[in-house]
Amino acid sequence: MAPQTPEPVGFGTRLADRSTPLRLFSLTPPREATAPEDLSRIADVTIERLQPLGLDALVLYDIEDESDRNPDVRPFPFVRSLDPATFHADHLGGWQQPVIIYRSVGKYEPADLKSWLAEQDPGQVATVLVGASSQHSAVRTKLAEAQSLWQDTGSLLPLGSVAIPERHARRTDEHDRMLGKQAVGTSFFVTQVVYDLTWAKDLVSDYAYACRERGVEPAHLVFTLSVCGSLKTLEFLQWLGVHVPRWLQNQLEHSDDPLTDSYDQCATAAAELATFCQRLGVPFGFNVESVSNRRVEIEASVRLAGAIRDLLED
Amino acid sequence: MAPQTPEPVGFGTRLADRSTPLRLFSLTPPREATAPEDLSRIADVTIERLQPLGLDALVLYDIEDESDRNPDVRPFPFVRSLDPATFHADHLGGWQQPVIIYRSVGKYEPADLKSWLAEQDPGQVATVLVGASSQHSAVRTKLAEAQSLWQDTGSLLPLGSVAIPERHARRTDEHDRMLGKQAVGTSFFVTQVVYDLTWAKDLVSDYAYACRERGVEPAHLVFTLSVCGSLKTLEFLQWLGVHVPRWLQNQLEHSDDPLTDSYDQCATAAAELATFCQRLGVPFGFNVESVSNRRVEIEASVRLAGAIRDLLED
């Protein structure tokens, strides 16, 4: 007899509903050097801004330098950010919905990661475990080990993993990796920022047919979308490994208003990916982030999340 | 030096109108072994079928074996076809609109090609000169030589050239090649069959911005679309060098009705490319062909050409 599935709580309850798309918004916590009195103010402003969006969860990223991954100069300088778990615990008490806290597992000692996983309230917190950004990174905990630690804590926190269409375009095995991650407990996937719709659809398609062949129920696949208001932000997206098709790169480079152009492209992508996933029976969702901390880009991100809410309610 | 533009006639008049999209339909002439009495019957049936489409021109292909281009087995066996110029001259008298006759220039002796070019009525005939399909082909006339011969005959026939988004994806210089072909007299381009919309848009975009930078008026870019009613046809398209995105290949392979699915994809492609070209100010058009000679695929091609006519009239 199969083990009884524990009654889902928090974000897990949301994941159990496969027919309603997920709506996430992600933040990078404030820089580590932020004055303590400013942190609560930033948290309050953020909560007030995001509250009307009716999100299923707020995503908090765990930023790594990643400069070992890319020899080119990082377009935005790396700034150490506050630990997302600390920012959540100390300042986001006013946020009533679940949070999804990323863990770049290579940064943590196994014992610390395990006790963090054990201490979280599955009614409030889900996690996305992310492996090292490069094989050259100094790694304290590997991804497979982190997944074991999660199992050791009773597999209670809803567990997410990353899915990367760009890697699929290079190696055409990302759907196999996803199924491997599902086999150890992953119940949702979040992509990196998507600007190449064909590559995103290629991954959805290979994943959907692989699930059918193996009799596996597909997990939610959440596409991350990000507006791009300047050539610097475009350069940063590309530095992060995001593939922007030539035509769109040309358009943004020649545009008087790249913010609006990229916003429109994100809205088009959301509509097209929603239709595509529905057709293939893959539960899906969208995660809106701003890769820069420029005010106009953050404001456009909030508008985009609102537009996606409206699109999905239609 | 660019040749002086003569007063346009026939298809040339149509090309002078940059704001109305071109609508073409292409045929491979009947096999060489066809009985003479059957040729007229085939021509009459074809004309009757195409007449209601209101085409700007009928394209007649000049088929080469091309097996030197691809070491894989040709999915449909190569059958020698009637020379398109002969088929036109002897059997298509009932076709009132212009024809665009392809010339695979490597097949012809320079003197023969030149006299053919000189003998055509520019009010009725345009040509597309196509270079050898592989560098290993035995070549009687090279493309540059054929272009010179065309100039020697007074540059009277409207001259088209091929444009290949797949080559652009590999080498990113197809827009430069196009500008080079324009400089020697090309006034329109026809692509090979398009199934990868991103790659087609990449080429349009690089071409449009290159034209702007160099102060050149873009020439009509005609996208070839072809339905695909079976896995054999899909295989043949790929053998011909057409890039079908993974997601679409999966869809067609798993479909109960690939003909309808590919038809829908062609219609979507036409709408999206039309909008894209209009936005970038590139005059455009569509050419519908059936790469197989199966009846259902030919009938679906005729329906597709009708749907494109309706789309462009909206």
Outline:
Chain A is α/β, with parallel strands linked by helices and 314 residues long. Chain A has twelve helices and eight strands. Helices cover 46% and strands 14% of the residues of chain A.
The mean pLDDT of chain A is 93
Taking all Cα atoms into account, the compactness measure Rg of chain A is 19 Å
Q: In total, how many beta strands of chain A? A: 8
Describe the strand arrangement of the main beta sheet of chain A, using strand numbers: 1-2-3-4-5-6-7-8
Written as H for each helix and E for each strand, in order along the chain, the element string of chain A is HEHEHEHEHEHHEHEHHHEH
Question: Per the principal axes of the C-alpha atoms, what is the gross shape of chain A?
Answer: globular
* Total of domains of chain A: 1
Instruction: Tell me the strand percentage band of chain A.
Output: 5-15%
**Ends of chain A: how far apart?**
41 Å
Query: Which secondary-structure class do the elements of chain A indicate?
Result: alpha/beta
Assembly state: homodimer
What's the CATH first level of chain A?
Alpha Beta
Major β-sheet annotation of chain A: 8 strands, parallel, barrel
**Most extensive chain contact?**
A-B, 17 and 17 residues
Number of separate helices of chain A: 12
Binned, the helix content of chain A reads 40-55%
Please name the CATH topology of chain A: TIM Barrel
- Contiguous uncertain segments of 5+ residues of chain A: none
Do you know the CATH architecture of chain A?
Alpha-Beta Barrel
Keywords (chains A, B): Oxidoreductase
InterPro entries (chains A, B): FAD-linked_oxidoreductase-like
Protein name (chains A, B): 5,10-methylenetetrahydrofolate reductase
